[in-house]
Amino acid sequence: MLRRSYLVIFPMLILSTLLLTYQWSMYVYGDQTTNTSTGTPDMHIQVNHTNEKLSVTQKITNLQAGTYTFFIPSNAKEIKCENGAGEPCLTQEKEVTVSEDQQIRWSYQLQYKKDEKVYSDWYIKLQKNNRTLPMNMNVEVIEKHEPFWKWAAPAKLEADIEKDYIRYYRWTSDQAEALPLLHMSEGPYQLHQEDGLYIYSKNSLGDNYKKLLQKWRNSPFEGPFIVIVNPDLQETIGERHIIVPDLNQETIQKYWLEQSLQSSYNTQNTWLVTMLTHYFYNISPQDKKTNKMVNALSTNLSKKQKQEFLQLALEAETDNLAKDLDRDLQKIYEKPTPFFDLNQNRNEPFVPLYFIENKTITVEGKKVDVAWKPILYNQHRYYPLAGISSLFEFELVALPSESLYIMRKNGESWRFSLNKKTFVHNQENFGVVTDVLEKVQGEVFIREKYIEELLGIRASEGSYSIDLKY
Question: Which fold is adopted by the domain 40-185?
Fold first, then answer.
């Protein structure tokens, strides 16, 4: 009887042990199949801080086979890269090639800066097609320096253990494109967070932080962003972090936008980014070209269109900020524009904002082959003066040095001047007009309103064409 009992109990004990072992493994390591199915690479980083030195080991697994661009921290040294077999990585300049199911392991030293509060450029990042590769990150910091320095990160804190000679931290973050480390040395900080925004404050903020969290909640920005509020520290703006003496919302929101655009496009055109922050946050421009660009956008875009433009601007399609911004405006107006492409250089002359009409030109219902396009300028349609004259056989006499343009047909004449509100009909009748002629990109255009009222050319707009009739 006992032998039979042992025959039943012993296998059950083995099965229970295996189940418990599996459950413990799931608790400690998580479901490894989940990450594999998503295709998101896994990154495990361990940082050891001892003797004024940061030693880093960084392992990446679950990478698809291919070639990746990698970016090493600017202050890294003693860099070594190996694959899972312990062999040197297959690298060439700034690219590393990975085979199927192969892991990469880097080790390097970082220069320790006691006064640096936020480490943004501290680990190696991979890019594919000019986009930073999101990673499921597991970061450990082992602090051995005495007295212990406090570390923090905008991620889920999994462990914070302090022993006699060591303090251990661990954070995890899924599909993260960035994960700054905070070096908090001036005593305890209060933490307020909201979906990727982390506010660390040395002193009590009362209810002031709630307004900022609400603005973040309603904004299109993506974190992590770190705000450190400490009047004892020097005000600093860095990658994905800002240190301020108080919660100045305008300064912080401007920083959010600048960081988001620079991160999305990896652009060095800081002037163009600054111009956009002046426009979106109604900040008075400090230079003439910025002022002209802000005024041009404000004149042509409604409040609703402005918000739509902001949303589109943060959704990078390429790594060319100027061309992407022009495409964003085209989506709003449904007409192309070269505005940002022509104005992206601060030292080049300002070019007004105009949209190129993409509808077909017809005359009395028949399509005509013309080499020109009308434009929308200050929300009005304009036609090339030379083009409309040729199409309807007006004689055009241009005196550019005098900004004077004369049109003649069937014994009648019209005299127009750039930058003047008057015109002369048949050399004797004076009239008052507004913006009859405009010069854009070296070409003179005439407003649609006046080709109808003065020249007798009627324009009828359809869904796909503009029909002209004399």
Answer: Immunoglobulin-like (2.60.40)
